[in-house]
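Notebook entry, structure prediction.
Reason for the run: the old model in the group folder had no record of what sequence produced it. Starting over properly, with the input documented here first.
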Amino acid sequence: EGSLPSEAANFIQSILHRVSMSRRMSSASHINILQASCNELERIASVQESISDPATFARLYLEGQAVYEKIVRGYSWSHNKSSGAGGELAPATRTNIIRLHTIANKLNSMFSYVDAENKMLIRILKVKMLAVRLVCVVCNSNKSAKAESDEFLTEFEAVLMDIQDKDLCKYKFMEAFNALALTDSKPGQLANKLKPLLIKHPPVSLQSVPSSVKQAKAVIHEPVGGSETVLKCLAGLVLGIRMDAELFNIPDPSLLRVCIRAADQVNQLSVPKRGD
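New structure, fully documented this time:
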């Protein structure tokens, strides 16, 4: 029984190797293997607590790879205006973009003790997510994409500064976009340059996941969930909600936020008092 964690860790490594080798296959086959691997990682995370966090980290990254492939191998994300659908983004593509945004943010905020190599990979995944979102906005709407453009460039520069010159060749997307040395940062210009790079340079496969990776978690004891504990509030009045929760693997408590979801689908992030 003592060897089980080691065997499970080797199983995760074998999954990552299989995914890496599948890059040589067609996009459809690669996506199928990614999705099957996600299911296997989710299963092992649920039965082997000692490596649950590393397995969850790997599953999220592989899911991000699968969603990314679905987006960039599709049509509607980067084709616009003149399309028969009147430039509307396909519902499935819109859902995938939202999912990729969620995955990238979770990987970059919910895990600690991530090694330097994997830390760089999840940061670059976020850069690519922002690039995909920028292209989609430019190609599928008439609204200004300046905010998306600025956010992408800011994140790109921040990541680029943390890559040593001798290591830049390891990160092909970062190297290729940096080599363009664009002087025009208009959203349309950026989108045209980004489209072929995003297709040519998908997220790099994970080589390994250290067992030291930890996932931030919260066990909420109060309020107790369920339809029998509906909390009603009136406009203009303050509603006090008592909360009792246990927090795990949060190195910096100042980053903690409490998400409050109202019946009208509005989400509000609240900063807990320091004394709490």
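Summary: Residues 116-140 form the longest helix (25 residues).
The old model has been moved to the deprecated folder.
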